[in-house]
C-alpha cells in the first residue's frame, strides 16, 4: 500500500476587532493591536471605520495570519456582509474597501471567514476600546 501524501491543513485562527470614533482595537490569541484614527478618518461613517479596523487588525497580525484560515468575529453585520460578498449594494466606498481587504488577504494566503455576533459577545474588543473615545 502506498503511503498517503501529507495533507497540510491551514492553521485556523480567530481575530476580534472593534472600532469607535477615535480608536480601533483588536486581539488575536494573547496579542493585542490598536490604533488611533487620523482626523480625516474620524469623519468617516462608523461602518467604514469598522471595516477599516478589520483591515488594520489583519495588517497588524500579518505575520501570524499568513497562510491561515481566519475567523473574523465582528459585531457589525454590515462589515460581515461586505466581507462575505466582497461588495455591497449601497456603499461604493465600503465595496472598494472590502475588495481591497480581500485582495490583500488573497495575496498573503489568508482566508477570511467573517462571523457576525451580537455586540455583547464581542466583549474583549469592546472593553479594549472603552475609555478611549
From TrEMBL:
Species this protein is from: Portunus trituberculatus
Protein name in the entry: Reverse transcriptase RNase H-like domain-containing protein
Record's keyword terms, sorted: Endonuclease, Hydrolase, Nuclease, Nucleotidyltransferase, RNA-directed DNA polymerase, Transferase
InterPro entries linked to this entry: RT_RNaseH
Pfam families given in the database record: RT_RNaseH (PF17917)
Domain Reverse transcriptase RNase H-like residues, every copy: 33-86
Keyword RNA-binding: no
Domain of life: Eukaryota
Entry keyword Cytoplasm: no
GO molecular function, one term: endonuclease activity
Amino acid at each position: 500500500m502506498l503511503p498517503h501524501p501529507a495533507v497540510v491543513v491551514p492553521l485556523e485562527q480567530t481575530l476580534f476587532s472593534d472600532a469607535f470614533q477615535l480608536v480601533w482595537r483588536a486581539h488575536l490569541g494573547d496579542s493585542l493591536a490598536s490604533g488611533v484614527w487620523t482626523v480625516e478618518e474620524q469623519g468617516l461613517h462608523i461602518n467604514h471605520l469598522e471595516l477599516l479596523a478589520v483591515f488594520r487588525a489583519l495588517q497588524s497580525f500579518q505575520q501570524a495570519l499568513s497562510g491561515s484560515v481566519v475567523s473574523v468575529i465582528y459585531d457589525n453585520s454590515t462589515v460581515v456582509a461586505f466581507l462575505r460578498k466582497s461588495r455591497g449594494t449601497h456603499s461604493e466606498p465600503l465595496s472598494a474597501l472590502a475588495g481591497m481587504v480581500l485582495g490583500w488577504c488573497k495575496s498573503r494566503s489568508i482566508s477570511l471567514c467573517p462571523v457576525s455576533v451580537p455586540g455583547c459577545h464581542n466583549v474583549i474588543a469592546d472593553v479594549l476600546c472603552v475609555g478611549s473615545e
